[in-house]
Amino acid sequence: MDNSVCISKFEDYLKNVKHASENTLCSYLRDIRQLGQYLDAHTEESLETVTADELEGYTAWMKSQGKSVPTISRSIASIKNFYKFLVLDKVVEVNPAMGLIPEKSVQKLPQILTGKEVEKLLEQPECTDLKGYRDKAMLELLYATGIRVSELIALNINDVNISAGIIRCKGHDKERVIPLYPAAIRAIAEYIEFIRPQMVSSSDEQSLFVNVSGERMSRQGFWKIIKTYQAKAQIDKPITPHTLRHSFAAHLLENGADLRSIQEMLGHADISSTQVYSQLVKKQLKDVYNKAHPRA
């Protein structure tokens, strides 16, 4: 069977049987196509006829190309799922990926901003035009709630309750309610009352945040916005939309919030995902101690 046919069948399985998200679908297919390209260039085998040794050779080749441990581990996960499907679909009899074991990577602590850096970033949008008011509301909301950028752009106008000072956020498997601090409430209320009506392309538009065309803001659009304000704020740390999520969690923990409450607000299914912020705060305290203590 041709490689493209195998991949097409796998894509159909992911979409219609597993109901995989768009991100998962793109990631799996990209990894399998890259494997197919490697086999075409370095072996005489196809995706259907590849052996366990050749798959081991592929992971070694990725390492030699400077691919990171997380990248190789993700690729191995994609390959394992691909061959589980081929066995299920009776395309191959034996799964050649069974023996692939990803290397354990050292968990990197997330990058966060200091309180001063957050303030500096939030000060950058100039409320002199429609975009400035919108951007101010988006950044304040993101830091106020710690929601993911995908959740931010998915918010609809009826997900905000200004009088109660909360938003309703629909996560992966459940809805959660997150409070807003006063400055965020003011910025969002001003945007909703005076700015959004001038930006939406249609009175039927439900999106809370819209682009200059009056339609729902995209991930790419918000990414460009945050990079623009990082440059204006002259913050040297790399900032992504997730940096504000990490900063939100770490700052809450530093100021006495308990892990369970932070877990609930972040929408983490497992408390272990939230515990990384404890490690981060402990590391920061140790760094401060080592820099400040006269005998350290």
List the topology elements:
Layout: H1 3-16, H2 22-42, H3 52-64, H4 69-88, H5 115-122, H6 130-145, H7 149-154, E1 160-161, E2 166-170, E3 175-179, H8 182-199, H9 219-233, H10 241-254, H11 259-266, H12 271-292
Antiparallel strand pairs: 1-2, 2-3
- The spatial strand order of the largest sheet comes to 1-2-3
Distance between the termini: 65 Å
CATH class of the largest domain: Mainly Alpha
Number of domains: 2
Can you tell me the CATH superfamily of the largest domain?
Intergrase catalytic core
Q: Please tell me the overall pLDDT.
A: 91
Structural Rg: 23 Å
Per DSSP, what share of the residues sits in E-state strands of 2 or more residues?
Answer: under 5%
User: What is the total tally of β strands?
Assistant: 3
Q: Which blocks of ≥5 consecutive residues have pLDDT under 50?
A: none
Structural class computed from helices and strand pairing: mainly alpha
Roughly what percent helix? 55-70%
Main sheet characteristics: 3 strands, antiparallel
